[in-house]
Amino acid sequence: MQQIGSLMVTDAAALDTIFMTIAKSIRTFLGRNNDISYQLYGALVTQARSREFYAGAGVPDNLDGRFDMIVMHSFLVIRRLNRAGESGIELAQKLFDDLFIDMDRSLREIGVGDLSVPKKIKVMAKAFYGRCSAYESALDGDDRVALADAIARNIYAESGAPEGATSTLADYMFGVESELAGQEDLQLLRGNIKFPVFTLEINEQA
Predict the structure, then answer these.
(1) Which of 40, 48, 165, 205 is the most exposed place for a label (fewest CB within 10 A)?
(2) Which among 183, 191, 178 has a CA at the least distance from the CA of 87?
(3) pLDDT grade, residue 34 (50/70/90)?
(4) Residues near 16 by Cβ (< 8 Å), separated by ≥ 6?
(5) pLDDT value, residue 200
(6) What is the H or E stretch that residue 85 is in?
(7) Residue 128, number of CB atoms within 10 A of its CB
């Protein structure tokens, strides 16, 4: 697992605030497509914050765990947008930019110094690409075992996964892939996106 610095933030409310502090002022002069990318990013962050991932599937409720869930959902949305023609590819790039603008802002919000932020963003970008490569290979190959292994290596590398958690999240990712494939390009390009509800609880071992 590629480490995301040494930051450890465990307060859930603080994490919620951090990941939703998008730098709106940066977008004031930008056009409608960027507003749409912000809308999509807000939707996927809301989904990534769903309590069931942390309380149900045992995803670590800290900065790394929250980052991983945002990466997972960003990857799935970007993957879908890249199949929606030139407009989709353009919007996917803007969504990617939104992600790292938010990560930059988030690091500064929790007190990371100006000189350290670019280094940490580089590490996060490397982690993003590494995870996306593993997830894409597994989804392209329709390989749930490989996807569950990638989830274990990344999301649960430090904490260890509760029994059944990796296969549950792999099934969820395949479900999101299917759900997004069924949504019309035009709706996605307008910023309208729906995610399946993640509700399955993972029972802790006695």
Answers:
(1) 205
(2) 191
(3) low
(4) 49
(5) 65
(6) helix 85-109
(7) 22
Spatial contact of 172 and 199, defined as CB atoms under 8 Å apart:
no
Question: 70: closest CA among 95, 36, 107, 87?
Answer: 95
CB 165 within 8 A of CB 156: yes
Give CA separation, 131 vs 26, 115, 124, 135, 186, in Å.
28, 26, 10, 6, 28
In a domain, 3, yes or no: no
Closest Cα to residue 36, out of 186, 203, 199, 196?
Answer: 186
Residue 178 falls within a domain, yes or no?
Answer: yes
Question: How many Cα atoms occupy the beta-carbon half-sphere of 121 within 13 Å?
Answer: 19
Which pTM does this prediction carry? Answer: 0.80
Please check whether residue 73 is in contact with residue 44, taking contact to mean a CB–CB distance below 8 angstroms.
Answer: yes
**Domain of 174, in residue numbers:** 12-189
Number of domains in the chain: 1
Given the structure tokens 């593993």, which residue do they identify? 134
**Residue recorded with tokens 């919007």:** 91
Decide if pLDDT at 37 tops 50: yes
- Kindly report the number of other CB atoms within 10 A of residue 146's CB atom: 16
Q: What token pair was written down for 83?
A: 């199949």
Long-range CB pairs of 48-53, under 8 A, 24+ apart, other chains included: 48/19, 48/72, 48/73, 49/16, 49/19, 50/198, 52/198, 52/199, 52/200, 52/201, 53/169, 53/198
- Write down the pLDDT at residue 109: 80
